[in-house]
C-alpha cells in the first residue's frame, strides 16, 4: 500500500530524530496543529513544503510521490559524483556589453568533473577579452554562488548579473559602502589615451546574482 504525503512527512521527521514540537517549529505550526497533519486530518501545505526545502533541502517530489531521494542534496551529490557539475549554454561577457538572448532558454549542454566542486557549482563560457590574460575568450569558468554579500572576497573574480548584463569582473571595494567597482584585468588595450575596458562602479543593490570564480578551464592553443 502506497504511503500518503502525511505519512512520508512523519517518516521524514523520525529520520531527522525530531519531536513533533521541534518539527512544528520548523514549519511554523504548534505541536497540536502539526500532529493533525501527520494524522492526515490536515493536508501537507505548500508552506510546509517550502519550509522543509529551505531548512533541510528535502526533495519535494519524494514527499509528494515517494519517488527519488528523501533529500535533494543526495540526488545532486550523486549527480556531481557521476556526471560532474552542469555546463550551461549561455555565456558571461568579459566586456561591459549587454548579452542579449532569451533568459528562459537556459540548457545544460554537458558536465565537468572538478575536484572540490560544491552541489551549487556550475560552469559558464567566457565571451570577450576584457579579462585577458586571466580569462580568455572561449574559456570555461567554474562558479560558486554567493548568497551573503558579507562573504565577498575583494580582489577576486566574480560572475555578476545586474540589469541586463552578465559579466565576469574583478570585484573591488568602493569608497561608498553601497557601491562596488567592476575591474577589468585587460588594461593594455586603449582607445586614444584611455583604457578600452575602464573600471565601472555600480550600486550593490543592482546585483541580482553573484558567483565566485573557483576554477578556469582555458581554451587549448590549437
Automatic annotation (TrEMBL):
<dbReference type="Pfam" id="PF01381">
    <property type="entry name" value="HTH_3"/>
</dbReference>
<keyword id="KW-0238">DNA-binding</keyword>
<feature type="domain" description="HTH cro/C1-type">
    <location>
        <begin position="9"/>
        <end position="63"/>
    </location>
</feature>
<keyword id="KW-0804">Transcription</keyword>
<protein>
    <submittedName>
        <fullName>LexA family transcriptional regulator</fullName>
    </submittedName>
</protein>
<dbReference type="InterPro" id="IPR010982">
    <property type="entry name" value="Lambda_DNA-bd_dom_sf"/>
</dbReference>
<keyword id="KW-0805">Transcription regulation</keyword>
<dbReference type="InterPro" id="IPR015927">
    <property type="entry name" value="Peptidase_S24_S26A/B/C"/>
</dbReference>
<dbReference type="InterPro" id="IPR036286">
    <property type="entry name" value="LexA/Signal_pep-like_sf"/>
</dbReference>
<dbReference type="Pfam" id="PF00717">
    <property type="entry name" value="Peptidase_S24"/>
</dbReference>
<dbReference type="InterPro" id="IPR039418">
    <property type="entry name" value="LexA-like"/>
</dbReference>
<dbReference type="InterPro" id="IPR001387">
    <property type="entry name" value="Cro/C1-type_HTH"/>
</dbReference>
Amino acid at each position: 500500500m502506497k504511503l500518503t504525503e502525511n505519512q512520508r512527512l512523519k517518516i521524514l521527521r523520525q529520520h531527522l530524530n525530531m519531536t513533533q514540537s521541534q518539527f512544528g517549529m520548523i514549519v511554523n505550526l504548534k505541536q497540536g496543529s502539526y500532529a493533525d497533519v501527520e494524522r492526515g486530518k490536515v493536508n501537507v501545505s505548500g508552506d510546509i513544503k517550502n519550509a522543509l526545502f529551505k531548512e533541510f533541502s528535502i526533495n519535494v517530489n519524494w514527499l509528494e510521490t515517494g519517488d527519488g531521494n528523501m533529500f535533494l542534496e543526495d540526488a545532486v551529490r550523486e549527480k556531481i559524483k557521476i556526471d560532474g557539475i552542469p555546463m550551461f549554454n549561455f555565456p558571461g561577457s568579459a566586456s561591459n556589453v549587454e548579452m542579449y538572448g532569451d533568459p528562459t532558454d537556459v540548457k545544460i549542454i554537458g558536465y565537468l568533473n572538478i575536484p572540490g566542486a560544491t552541489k551549487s557549482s556550475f560552469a559558464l563560457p567566457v565571451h570577450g577579452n576584457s579579462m585577458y590574460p586571466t580569462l580568455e575568450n572561449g574559456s570555461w569558468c567554474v562558479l560558486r554562488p554567493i548568497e551573503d554579500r558579507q562573504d565577498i572576497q575583494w580582489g577576486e573574480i566574480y560572475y555578476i548579473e545586474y540589469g541586463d548584463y552578465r559579466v565576469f569582473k574583478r570585484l573591488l571595494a568602493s569608497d561608498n559602502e553601497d557601491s562596488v567597482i567592476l575591474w577589468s584585468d585587460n588594461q593594455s588595450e586603449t582607445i586614444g589615451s584611455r583604457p578600452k575596458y575602464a573600471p565601472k562602479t555600480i550600486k550593490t543593490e543592482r546585483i541580482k546574482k553573484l558567483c565566485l570564480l573557483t576554477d578556469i578551464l582555458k581554451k587549448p592553443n590549437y
